[in-house]
Design brief:
mainly alpha, about 65% helix
């Protein structure tokens, strides 16, 4: 153990440089992400910080929804074709009329149906972790959902029909007008800071990120399940070497740091508490076991009204 101590300052210096580089990278990323954060005050007076979705996320969600719609349309057309064969060719016109009505409702009410639901998001939005919300902090109303989705027909549907009319003469000019129209509406979310469509601007809505929350596992439970009985038996004096502050730092080390940093921290803790490394003992297992023991000890002291803030608190 003594042979590795002289190299510790050099290793720590290199680790400090790497930590500074990671810290600067995190700061730059945080600055970029902070541009998408908006403060929302609810009618009850609560302040909530929301993160807007990016233009690429919204475009990806839209493409997923369009793919789902076309899959439904194609499946319905195939089903009706089999029905026509069974009922005879005389029912073809009726079946086609039914298909057109179904296509109309699917095209116009697909987004409305899902955004009026409890998730306020279509399948495409849910897949990318985004949802629709009201900009005033209130409940998302039916009027807002209807407005933002009927405007989509002007933004996308009408220009698409113009482009399908492409040809010569007047039709060519109409197609060009449709292309310019589409460009204005498609690029509108890119050139405004809130990444809003024209429909969002009129309806008073935002599209925000709503990722699924994933709770991290309990380190102390993981250590208890993996450690062998009697492998790590820390004395009360060894568990009393650190306080609440060091417990939080150790948890951060276990969750976020590299293997080399864990090894350096394990060496420091072993040296401070006078722990002799046992055969087959790994740094991760030691740190997790000591974290569990330190947490247990601090909780016991808290029950007795004795709060140890940090390692310098010798009360």
């Amino acid at each position: 153990m003594n042979a590795t101590v002289p190299h510790a300052p050099q290793n720590l210096s290199r680790l400090q440089i790497e930590a500074d580089q990671r810290r600067r990278a995190r700061m730059l990323e945080n600055q970029r992400q902070s541009k998408l954060v908006r403060e929302l005050v609810t009618p009850e007076g609560a302040v909530i910080h929301l993160k807007l979705s990016t233009a690429s996320e919204r475009a990806g969600a839209f493409l997923i929804d369009v793919a789902i719609q076309w899959a439904i349309v194609i499946a319905t057309a195939i089903g009706l074709s089999y029905a026509i064969r069974a009922m005879g060719s005389g029912s073809a016109n009726i079946a086609f009329a039914v298909w057109l009505v179904f296509f109309f409702f699917l095209r116009n009410f697909y987004y409305i149906f899902f955004e009026l639901g409890p998730k306020s998001a279509t399948p495409g939005k849910r897949a990318l972790g985004i949802r629709v919300t009201a900009r005033d902090g209130g409940r998302l109303t039916a009027n807002s959902v209807l407005a933002r989705n009927f405007i989509r027909e002007i933004e996308v549907g009408l220009p698409f029909q113009f482009l399908m009319m492409g040809g010569t003469g007047v039709s060519g000019w109409i197609a060009l007008l449709g292309l310019v129209w589409s460009g204005i509406f498609l690029l509108f979310p890119i050139f405004n800071k809130d990444k809003m469509r024209v429909g969002d601007l009129i309806a008073g809505t935002w599209v925000i990120r709503a990722p699924k929350a994933k709770l991290m596992g309990d380190i102390s439970s993981s250590a208890a399940s993996q450690a062998l009985p009697g492998r790590f038996a820390f004395t009360p004096e060894q568990a009393d070497a650190y306080g609440i502050h060091e417990l939080h730092v150790l948890e951060d080390v276990l969750r976020n740091s590299t293997e080399e940093v864990k090894s350096q921290v394990a060496l420091r803790i072993r040296t401070k508490i006078g722990w002799q490394t046992q055969p087959g003992e790994t740094d991760i297992a030691f740190l997790e076991a000591y974290y569990a023991a330190l947490r247990r000890r601090l909780e016991q002291r808290m029950l007795l009204g004795d709060r140890k803030a940090d390692k310098y608190d010798t009360r």
